[in-house]
Design a protein that fits this description.
- The protein is mainly alpha-helical and 144 residues long.
- It contains four helices and no strands.
- It starts with a helix and ends in a 6-residue tail after the last helix.
- The mean pLDDT is 82.
Length: 144
């Protein structure tokens, strides 16, 4: 890396005026190289810092509290977190339970009717009308 002579003269005068130190050409060359390296690294770090600040600013808007309706915002946040899933779970369990209970009821209802008709047929096969009415009075039809 070739450092120009006017650059070294300018750097020498700046160091002399700022710090009161007169440096030789080797020290000035090392100082110039270090300044260039540090300048590049600072530029790179500033770009990364600007990207981070931009990212934070951009995300801050989505995390901002709604000043007009803070309670509604908290409510819907909670609903999104657990509420909607819990409600759907409860509804699905309720629907399944209702279906299962109604199926069991239908099954029992059909079994009761089948048993009653079978009993009615077997018991009243040879009976008179009065005896059949007496049997019906003692063994009523299953309720729906």
């Amino acid at each position: 890396m070739e450092i120009s002579n006017p650059h070294l003269i300018k750097l020498r005068t700046r160091v002399l005026l700022q710090y009161g130190i007169n440096l030789d050409e080797t020290s000035l060359s090392i100082l110039s190289i270090l300044q260039d390296d540090i300048g590049e690294k600072l530029t790179e770090q500033n770009q990364k810092l600007e990207e981070a600040v931009y990212s934070i600013e951009r995300s801050k808007k989505s995390l901002q509290v709604d000043q007009n309706h803070p309670r509604w915002q908290a409510f819907w946040f909670g609903m999104g977190k657990w509420g909607i899933a819990s409600i759907l779970f409860i509804i699905l369990v309720g629907i399944y339970t209702q279906f299962y209970i109604s199926e069991q009821h239908k099954k029992k209802y059909v079994e009761d009717w089948c048993w009653w008709y079978k009993s009615y047929y077997n018991e009243t096969k040879g009976m008179s009308k009065n005896a059949a009415e007496e049997w019906l009075y003692n063994h009523p039809m299953p309720a729906q």
